[in-house]
Amino acid sequence: MSERTKYLLDESQMPKSWYNIQADLPKALPPVLHPGTMQPVGPDDLAPLFPMELILQEVSTERDIEIPQPVQDIYKLWRPAPMYRAHRLEKALGTPAKIFYKYEGVSPAGSHKPNTAVPQAFYNAQEGVKKLTTETGAGQWGTSISFAGNIFGLEVLVFQVRVSYDQKPYRRAVMETYGARCVASPSQETVYGRQVLAERPDHPGSLGIAISEAVELAAQRDDTKYALGSVLNHVLLHQTVTGIETIQQLEMADVQADVVVGCTGGGSNFAGIAFPFIGQGLRGGKMPRIVAVEPAACPSLTRGKYAYDFGDTAHLTPLTKMHTLGSTFTPPGFHAGGLRYHGMAPLVSHVKELGLIEATSYTQGECFAAGVLFARAEGIVPAPEANHAVKGAIEEALRCKREGRSETIVFNLCGHGHFDMVAYQKYFAGELTDEQYDEKELAMALSGLPSVPSNL
C-alpha cells in the first residue's frame, strides 16, 4: 500500500483562535519607543495608523485570541490549507528524511498573506475606515490586501517598490482586478516620494520607502488607515493559523517535527509556521530545531545588528528593537521582492536573541536551483521567496542523508510563483545574477542607527 501524500483537515477543524507567542516567552519583548521622547508608545500614538482592535492585539499577552466569525467565514475560501508529504523530492534527494510542506499558495491571492489581510480589512471596516494605504514588494501582500479590502468595501492604495513594479506587471494587474490602485514607489504622490526622486530619479525603491509613502498619506486623513503585511506583532499573530493547522496535520501523519523551516524577510510567514511549534516547546512539549532562511543579499538576521531602528526610511514610524541593516539601506533588486526589507520582525528578532531559532542565508541562484528541483519533483512552482524555504529544507534533508538520520522536516511553501515566471526565464537563460549588497552602504546605514538610552 502506497504511503499517503495529502493531509487535509475539514472546515470544522480550522483554528478558532490565533496563537500569541508573547504569552509563553521567557523574557518579554522590548517596548516600542516614541522617537521623540524615547518613551514606550501607547495606544494613542498608534491610533492615527491602526484601528484600536489591532493595536490591542499588538500589545496583548493573551495566549489565544479569538478569530471573529466573519473572518473565519472568509478563511473558509481556502482554509484549512493542505499539507503534503514530499515523497518525490525525498526520492530525488536520496534522503532517509521525511519532508512535509504546508502549502499556502491555495489562497485566492496565491500566498499566505490573506491570513492577515482579511482580519486587518475586517477590523478597519468595523471601525468605519474608508480607505487603506499600504506598501508591497513582490506584490503578494498588495494582492492580498486588495482582495480583502474589496470584500469589506474599502478603497485600497498600494505603493509597490519600483523594481518589483517593473519586474512583476501581472501582480499589479491582479491588484487592479480586485479594485485597488497600485503606484510605483518612490512616487510623485507624497512629499517623501518626491524628495527621493529629486535626489535620484531612477531610484529602484525599497520597502522602507514604500512604507514611508503609505504612512505619510494615512496619517493625513481621519478616514484612512495604514495596513502592513509583515513585521508587526498582530500580523505575525494572524499568520499562526498556518502552524496550528500543521501541528494537527502532523498528528494525522503520526509524526512530530524535528526541523521546521521558513523563509524570512519581514518575518510573517516564518512566524506563522514556527511560532506554534516554539510555543508547544516552551510549554513542555517537543521543541524542534527552527531554521530561518533569508537572502544573502538582504541578510538582516545573519548580518544585521540587533538594535532599535525605524521601520521606514523617512523615519515616520516608532522605534522597534529588531535585527536591522539600517533603515536607509536599499537592498539590491533580486527577485524575491517580499524578502527585500531592511529589518526583521521584532518578535522574530527576539526569539533569535533568546536562542530559540537558527538563521542561515543563501544566494538567489542557489534558491532558484532548489525551486526548480522542487517543481520538477512535486509539480508546484514556488514563489522566489518560498524558494528560500525549499533550499533550507533540501539542505536539512541532505544533512540527514550524510548522517543517516530519518528526521521529519517541515517547511512552509508560502506561495506559488505563477506571477514570477520572468525570474524563472532569466534563471534558465543564465541571466539571474547573485546580487551583492554594497558593504559601504550597509556600514553607512548601520552607523545612522538612532541613539537610544543604554538601559533599553
Automatic annotation (TrEMBL):
Gene3D superfamilies (UniProt xref): 3.40.50.1100
Top EC category: lyase
Domain Tryptophan synthase beta chain-like PALP: 77-415
A GO term, aspect molecular function: L-serine hydro-lyase (adding indole, L-tryptophan-forming) activity
InterPro entries in UniProt: Trp_synth_b-like, Trp_synth_b_CS, Trp_synth_beta/beta-like, TrpB-like_PALP, TrpB-like_PALP_sf
Catalytic activity: (1S,2R)-1-C-(indol-3-yl)glycerol 3-phosphate + L-serine = D-glyceraldehyde 3-phosphate + L-tryptophan + H2O
Record's protein name: tryptophan synthase
Organism: Polynucleobacter cosmopolitanus
